[in-house]
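Dear colleagues,

As part of the handover before I leave the project, I'm documenting each prediction I ran so the next person doesn't have to rerun anything. This entry is a single chain, and its sequence is reproduced below.
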Amino acid sequence: MGNLLQSYVEKAVEFGEQLGLDVIIIRGLEKIHNQIRFSQNKIDINKQWHTNVLEVFLVVDKNFIATGEFSPSNEAYIKDQIISLTEFARKMSPSPFYQGVEESVTSNYPIIKGGYDSSIDSYREKAPEHVIACINAACEAGAKRVAGSYLFGETYSILKSSMGLYGQDQATFFNLTVRAFQDELDASGQGLSCGRIPTVAEKDLLTAATRAGTFSKLHRNAVQAKPGIYDVVMAPAVGANLLGTIPSMANPVAIMMGMSALGDKMGSSLAPEFVNVDDNGLFKDGLASEPFDIEGTPHQNTPIIKNGVFINLIHNTSTSRIMGGQTTGNSNLTNFGIGSKFLAPTPTNRIFNNGDHSMEEILQSENPTIFVSCNWYTRYTSRISTEYSTIPRDAAFLVENGELGVPIKNFRISDNLLRQFENIDAMGKDRVQVKWWEVNVPTFIPSIRVKDCRITTATQ
C-alpha cells in the first residue's frame, strides 16, 4: 500500500507551494475496508472497498482558510482541486478559530504498539467463517433470528505539509454489531465488539454474539415499565453514549459555539473522586490511536477529569493560542455536525478508569434499580443544561435481589447528564472499548451505576 498515494500527497503539497499558499496540509488515506452484513441467520452481503482520499487544509492571505476532501485520479485533477479550494478560501471571511498551526517539525513520533494486524490479507478469507460462528453462537444462546454487521480492514495514512512535516501510519480495525431477536419483535439483545487486531478477536466476537442471544431470550415477555426514580446500571454501550458526552464537552470550540456545558466548570468537581477520564490518542487497541494529529503534533494522553475534578481542555495550536494554553495534539478536520469541516480540537479515545466492582456488586442496591443494555436516539433539550431523553432498546430489566429480574420495555431515560455524572455510584471492572453508530468517539468504559435517574413512559 501507499506508493501511488504518496506521490499524490507530494504533488498536492507541491501545487499548494506553487500557488504561494501560507499553509497547506495534506493527509492521504488509502483504505481497504470490508463489510459483512447478515440477517435472518445468514450472510447477505460481503463487500470490499479500496479507496484513496486526500484531505486538504490550506491557508491563503494569512487568515483565509479552506478544507476539502476528494478522491485523486491524476495529477491534473489534484491541481484543479487545490486551485478551486484556494479560490474558495479567498471568498470566505477570516476564520475566528484559526490562529496558526504547529510550526515545529519532528520525525520523532511515538510508536503505537499493537495497532496493525500483519495477517489482515489472509484474514479476509476467514472472516465469513467467524461471522457464521457468531450467528451460531447467538442462536445457541437462545436467539431465533440474528442480524448485524461486521466491519474490518486497514488504513494507510500519510501526512505532509508545506512546513516540512512528514509522517505515516498503518492501522487495522474490526467492529462487530450483533442484534438477536425472538418471535416477539421487542424481545431483543445486542452485542458489540471492536478493536485493532481482528485475527485474535474470535473469542471476543463470540462473546458479543452470545451476549446478544442470551439477552434476547431473557427479554421475552417484557412488561411495561413504570415511571419513577431508579438507580440505573448502564452497560458500557449506554455509558459511552450518555456519560461519555461530558468529557467530550471539554473542547474550547464547543464552548465558544455554545455547545458545551463545561464553559465555567474548570476546576469544579463533576463526579465522585473514583472517576477519572482521559483523552488518549496513544491508547493500546484504541480505534483513534495514531502517532500524530493532522497538524503533525504528536498525540499524547491528556487527563480531562481527575479524581472527579474537571482539569483540562483538549487543544489544537489555534485554540491553545486563543486561550493561552498548550496544544494537546488533538487537531483534526471536523464539522461539529453543523456543516463544512474546519480545523478544530477533536477527541481521540475517551478512557474511563476501570472500576473495582463485579457485576454482582453493581447490581446490589437498596433502591429500585434498572439494568439497561443499549440505548438509541439520544436527544437534547439543551447542550448547555444537558437535559436529554433517550430510548433504551434491546434488553432492559428490573433488578431484583441483586440479579436481573423482570424484563421491561417502552420507557425513556429523561434526565440531566451533569447531574447523572455527579451521581455515578459504582464502576465495574469490565471495561471494554465501545464504538458503533450511537457512539462515534471510541470509548473505553465499564458498566456504571448511576443513582436517582428519572424514568418516564408514554401516557395514554
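The chain is about 25% helix and 40% strand. The two ends are 60 Å apart (CA to CA).

All the best with the project,
I.
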